[in-house]
Amino acid sequence: MYRGIRHSRIRVTEPIQPDTSHSIEVRRQNKTLGLVPPSVESYALQAQRCLKQLEAKKSPIEKYMYLSNLRNNNVHLFYRLVQENWTDITPLILYADSWRSLFKMVGNLSTARRSISLLP
Q: What residue stretch is flagged as signal peptide (predicted)?
C-alpha cells in the first residue's frame, strides 16, 4: 500500500535546449541534431565569445538585454558565465541605471505621436 504519491511514476522533464557544447551522440539522443551548428564547442570557448559580445555593447541596458537573452536561450552557459565572472556581470544584472534607462525608453515610446502600447 502506498501513501501519498507514488514517486516511481512521476517523471519530471526539463525542456531540452540545443547547445553547441553537447556531443553529437547527446544531440542524437535529445533529437536536437541539426538545430545547432555542427561543430562541438567547449563552454570555455562559448564563454569567451559571450564576453567579447558583452564588451561590444555600449550601454548598460544593452548589456542587460544581452544577458537576459542569453539566460533565456542557454541557461547553463549564462549561470556558468556569471559564476566565472561574478564581479563583472553581477553589477550589470543589478544595475539600477539599466532599469532607469529602460523606463525612460518605454516612456519615450509611449509619448511618441504614434505610440506603441507595450501593455495590454
A: none
In a 3-state reduction of DSSP, which class is residue 100?
helix
What is the mean pLDDT of the segment spanning 39-62? 89
How far apart are the C-alpha atoms of 58 and 93, rounded to whole Å?
15
CA–CA gap between residue 66 and residue 76 (Å, rounded): 15
Among all chains, which residue has been given the C-alpha cell 502600447? 117
pLDDT in tens, 83-99: 999 888 888 887 655 56
Nearest to 92 by CA among 31, 51, 42, 43: 51
Report which DSSP code applies to 112: S
Unique residue bearing C-alpha cell 516612456? 107
Instruction: Determine if the pTM surpasses 0.85.
Output: no
Determine what percent of the chain is predicted with pLDDT higher than 70. Answer: 63
Q: Please state, in angstroms and rounded to a whole number, the distance separating the CA atoms of residues 118 and 63.
A: 21
Helices (H), 11-59: 24-30, 43-56
Report the distance separating Cα 49 and Cα 81, nearest Å: 11
